[in-house]
Amino acid sequence: MDTSLYAAVDLGSNSFHMVIARLTDGRMQIIDRIKERVRLAEGMDEGRNMSPQAMARGLDCLALFAERLTNIKPDQIRIAGTYTLRRASNARDFVREAAKVLNHPIEIISGQEEARLIYQGVAHTQHLEGRVLVVDIGGGSTELIIGEGFSPLALTSRKMGCVSFTQQFFPAGRLGPSQFEAAVLAARHQLDPVREQYRTLGWQSCLGSSGSIRTVHDVLVQEGLTEGGITREALARLSGRILGHKKVSALRFDGLPSERQEVFVAAVAILTALFDALPIERMDYSDGALREGLLYEFEERLQHHDIRERTALALASHYRIDGRQAARVEASALALFDLLAPDWQLEADPYRAILRWAAQLHEIGLAINYGGIHRHSAYILANTDLPGFNQDDQSLLAALVRFHRKSLKLGDLPPLPNHDQQAVLRCIRILRLAVAANHRRLDGLLPPWQARARGEGLTLTLPAPWCEENRLLMQNLEKEQAYCAEQGWRLDFQLS
User: Fold this and answer.
1) What are the tens digits of pLDDT across the range 134-183?
2) Taking a C-beta distance cutoff of 8 angstroms, is the pair 170, 265 a contact?
């Protein structure tokens, strides 16, 4: 197994992409790219179910990808699902089968996180000067980002994509002025909520990063409609030529590959709306996109610049969390984790890291009120955009915080398909003990943890004089003992 190789896979609504890189002198060097058009969003019914045919195409593609991933370490692979897998009612069925094919979990990322990663992909592969607007038209959604250097300033994901718009406005390949104008108007409507914000921020240059934008760019150049870059005038001239046909299948343009023909008109309509509404004067093409963003996240984490850590710190600051109490709970939780991880077979990645962030943020719900703080904290963490966290890890973070105190109503535990349920419950127990033991909110109060586990039984060894001096705190720990007993978990205290 080659430990220098890293892989990122983007499960898009129209195409699946895989990029392989080698880590050389601390930098990622891309050595292979694989792309397959699967049209995952095609044929989605009114109940938002992906069709069996689309799911089969996706799984067949992933079987090919799996061959290429066999010699790469599992913790050096990231596989992300985007708009269609966020939206589809039967997404969980597909994700479960895909994970079996790839022998690796699938991350479902939010629209905001997708936009952030797209920007990172562009920023790491393109020399950027000044403020830049990045646009990515996917199969189901379009991401818009304004940033400077490696820092995004505005992120949004709009529900308009070349596959979904093709199905909605150009069914069966029908084409006409009224249909094209309806698609443009629908795209402009999607842009209305962010138009003023983006106009106010402004930008010096604009880059498009998707296959759809590349196709439009290539057609404009090869048809002689532009000398380079996409402009509003060139788009208008191209639209005129498109509307000279009544069927999408009749389009014949230099630079238009057959696999892009079906969704080409929808991409032109979305671009037309973008150029008119924002407005955009010129857009150039960039090779960087989501998969490169996923890849370069590895590089950031290797350099200990984990965006998730910055996210947790920003939340703690925004909600004015008591940092000293958070640090006490964090120290206790991590000390317990390190003692119990061998007995409980808890993997440091991801459980130790997410337990740490849960300890840091468990009191975030105080911003609402103390009553029901555990529920308020979980709600905030589950419903806030958390840069760097995929949906499954965000759900795990919220779940740990949700159960950090009071009775364990485990029926409320959300599905966490990419996490081992036993490991999740054990992390909950660790966090609960850390919170209970720090109830008095004092530094230096606790003796060093001594703990061992046998199955689900847990024994804490505490100094007898300390227990006598801290009866109120021991009552708190005994309450936790009773909560555990309700779940059939033994929690024993042994005096030393």
Assistant:
1) 999 999 999 999 999 989 999 999 999 999 999 999 999 999 999 999 99
2) yes
**DSSP conformation class of 17:** E
Q: Cβ(300)–Cβ(23) under 8 Å?
A: no
Going by pLDDT thresholds of 50, 70 and 90, the confidence category of residue 302 is low
Token duo for residue 198: 């983006």
Closest to 274 measured CA to CA, from 64, 116, 164, 134: 134
Q: List, in order, residues 6 or more apart from 145 with CB less than 8 Å away.
A: 115, 116, 118, 119, 133, 134, 152, 154, 155, 156
The values of phi and psi at residue 303, to 5°, are: -90, 10
Pick the CATH number of 127-286 from 3.30.420.150, 3.40.190.10, 2.30.110.10, 3.30.470.30: 3.30.420.150
Q: Which amino acid is at 212?
A: S
- Report d(CA 434, CA 422) in Å as an integer: 19
Contact 59, 101 (CB under 8 A): yes
CA distances from 332 to 147, 229, 439, 483 (A): 39, 57, 12, 20
Give the helix ranges, DSSP H, for 7-82: 52-69
Question: pLDDT (tens digit, 9 = 90+) per residue, 47-87?
Answer: 999 999 999 999 999 999 999 999 999 989 999 999 999 99
Query: Measuring CA to CA, which residue among 174, 162, 172, 171 is closest to residue 214?
Result: 162
List, in sequence order, every residue forming a beta bridge with 157; answer none if it has no partner. 143
Fold of 306-446: Hypothetical protein af1432 (1.10.3210)
CA neighbor of 189 nearest in space, from 248, 87, 276: 276
CB 487 within 8 A of CB 456: no
What residue ranges do the domains of the chain occupy?
5-109+293-301, 127-286, 306-446
Do domains 127-286 and 306-446 share one topology? The answer is: no
| Residue 7, φ and ψ in degrees, nearest 5 | -135, 145
The CATH code for residues 5-109+293-301 is 3.30.420.40
Alpha helices in 227-322, H assignment, sequence order: 232-242, 258-277, 290-302, 307-318
